[in-house]
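Notes from the 1:1 (GR / supervisor)

We went over the backlog. Supervisor wanted to see one worked example end to end before approving the batch request, so GR pasted a single chain during the call. The sequence is below; no edits were made to it. Supervisor asked that the structure be written out right there so they could see what the output format looks like.
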Amino acid sequence: MASRTRPGMKLRVAHFAVATRRFVPVLLILLSVSGCEKNLFQAPPHGGTADVPPAPTSDSVLTLVAQIPYETLEQFLDNHG
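Structure output shown during the call:
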């Protein structure tokens, strides 16, 4: 028995199925977000409690590494020493 669908009909159904698989998750996400509170995308309130202690401070250590030729040191000492 011959198929009663046109040749392009199967292709359209396949494209529709692919589009549906891509669209349904987006639709579900949009529906779930629409049911949330209205302040979902607002910044949190500023400020805080006054009884929070400040962060501790510590000293920093800096190490300097230099290469000075011996001749340069001799010249410096001869001129300034």
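Supervisor's comment: The chain has a mean pLDDT of 76.
Batch request approved.
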